[in-house]
């Protein structure tokens, strides 16, 4: 799927890795470990396209869709939890938000209000379009993924900006899982998560059937999610992990 071909990356005088060559085959489920400063995050960013190597090439077999979960999840807007997860489905997301707006407005109007009938007609037309595009199925799957990650349904319409780092991490992961990328890159996804949340993350990722690369210090999580296939980035090269 991806062939890392003799890449080099440096920051000022410091060379992070040089002549790094690595083949990541389709359907691989690997854990990536290594000492602090070895360049694990840098390598993940290069694979995701968020950073570029100074030398060498990254070869991809066909169009590889990459989903990348960084260590620190930033809140990019004030959208709700559910709307953020549906972000990759632009038109469906806009429709879902408009439907919510109609519902809130209709709930505020009394029976017999002339505006209510207009809103009901507009709501019905939009709902039909939403369903014809499969919006209900996408939303249902989004809700299922969020539930699997421990996000209660009463929080689905909360602004993402109101959530802690741990909750934002779950929402970001849910968005990636819903988009079903060919390659899923997770960089220390257990940051800000408690034990129960880590177990929920493990179960959610176990259901992902694409190619997976996971960076974590949690050995139990690595062995469960990466199925015991763990490699180490050390001294600028990827090698089999001696602890396996």
Number of helical elements: 8
- The secondary structure category is alpha/beta
Helix and strand pattern? EEEHEEHHHHHEHEHEE
Spatial order of the strands forming the largest sheet = 5-6-7-3-8-9
**Helix percent band:** 40-55%
| Form type | elongated
Q: Could you report the average pLDDT, rounded to the nearest whole number?
A: 88
pLDDT < 50 runs, ≥5 residues: none
**For the terminal residues, how far apart are their CA atoms?**
24 Å
Beta-strand content bin? 15-25%
Under the CATH scheme, the architecture of the largest domain is 3-Layer(aba) Sandwich
Count of folded domains: 2
CATH topological fold name of the largest domain? Rossmann fold
Biggest beta sheet summary? 6 strands, mixed
Tell me the radius of gyration.
21 Å
Q: What is the level 1 CATH name of the largest domain?
A: Alpha Beta
**E-strand count:** 9
Q: How would you portray this structure in words?
A:
The protein is α/β, with parallel strands linked by helices and 244 residues long. The chain has two domains: 2-74 and 163-240, Rossmann fold (3-Layer(aba) Sandwich), CATH 3.40.50.300; 81-155, no CATH class. The protein is built from eight helices and nine strands. The chain has a six-stranded mixed beta sheet, sandwiched between helices. A three-stranded antiparallel beta sheet has the order 2-1-4, with no helix packed on it. A hairpin with a 2-residue loop joins strand 1 (2-11) and strand 2. The longest helix has 19 residues, at 90-108.
